[in-house]
Amino acid sequence: MNIILFGPPGAGKGTQAELMINHFSLAHLSTGNMFRSAIQNKTPLGVKVKSILDSGELVSDEVVVDLVQEETAKDIYRKGCVFDGFPRTVGQAQSFDEMLAKKNTSVDALISLVVPEEELIKRILSRGQGRSDDTREGIINRLSVYQNETEPVLNYYEKQGLVKVIDGIGAVDSVFDRIKKIL
Ligand code: ADP
Q1: C-beta separation of 39 from 131 below 8 A
Q2: Does 131 participate in catalysis according to the annotation?
Q3: Which of 81, 89, 93, 114 has the highest count of CB atoms within 10 angstroms of its CB?
Q4: Ligand 1 centroid to 114 CA: how many Å?
């Protein structure tokens, strides 16, 4: 089962991904976490993407797709995976579909977590994880990048009939109950 967990920054993708991987025994791939860990470890990739993450812009499709391709070649991804923060552009979605088709698999569902913008800003500012992109300016830029570049991905998967819309407001467990019901 390959599930895309989709939604704006602050929608709760990371939190719900953790619950999903435990409940459904799936692997978890978060491109954001992979980039942050590369930055922390000062790898060549980390050095390359640090200023991009700080600004809230997107890492290039080529870099992201290569990273995901390399990572998903590992055995742990064979039973299926929750993709969190990927694909984030229509170009990434197209490459992703091709990547999966070569392995005779495909996307099974896209879960779209819906949360209003004021709530997103409030959540990110209060989560206090010390992320260098979690400033008010950083968040506002990420939200606009989301609207311009990422939201069209919904339409792309809508055409394949894979989009499941979930209300992302409420307690963590209530949101997860909604996800379990539709999967
Ligand atoms: P958030 O959902 O809060 O924006 P993420 O951890 O998903 O956080 O991503 C953090 C940053 O990592 C993004 O702002 C972007 O710079 C980079 N990034 C993560 N995933 C991708 C992706 N699929 N394509 C391009 N850039 C990405």
Answers
A1: no
A2: yes
A3: 93
A4: 17
